[in-house]
Amino acid sequence: NYHEWESSMRNAFRAKRKLGFLNGTVTQPNDDASEIEDWWSVNSMLVGWIIQSIESSLRSTITYYDTVKELWDDLHQRFSVGNGPRILQLRSDLARCNQNGQSIAAYYGHLKKIWDELSTYITNRACTCGKCTCKWAADLSKERQDEQVHQFLMGLDDEMYGTLRSNIIAQDPLPSLNRVYALVVQEERHKHMTKGRD
């Protein structure tokens, strides 16, 4: 999965403070600049990291580029599937995602994987107030989390968790996704203990 790989690589480059080489904010110095050798050294190392992270069956199809930015852009153009169809597929997967007898951890893990991939396609909108005092980002984050709480609760097995789901949905404001997950896991454990006594 290209988008999963891309996200992982971005994270690794960010951790090493080299993301600027990928997005073009760290540019190649002039050939007579004193830092040119250092730039080429880092650039070559990053090209190597990317090449080594690619599956061996695909590696032979990769065109050689001098700069990591050119390589990164080429890979993006070749392997990035259009966002529209993938977003539709992920939203469809979310709509059909149900517990179906799985453990809560397995069901939640499946949902989380879909949410995480979907978040790579969603553009984060920026605050337009100019002062960032409008709580816009916090409100948007809460809205997304509430949506995930609803999606998680909708897919739970009705017979086992219908009452708990109703109790959680009745709360205003909704608890955080982590709190809801903890409540559902607690209920799962309680039901397993009760079932074991019967």
UniProtKB/TrEMBL annotation:
Residues 60-157 form the Retrotransposon gag domain. Residues 1-30 form the Retrotransposon Copia-like N-terminal domain. Coiled coil: none annotated. InterPro entries: Copia-like_N, Retrotrans_gag_dom. Pfam families: Retrotran_gag_3 (PF14244), Retrotrans_gag (PF03732). This is Retrotransposon Copia-like N-terminal domain-containing protein.
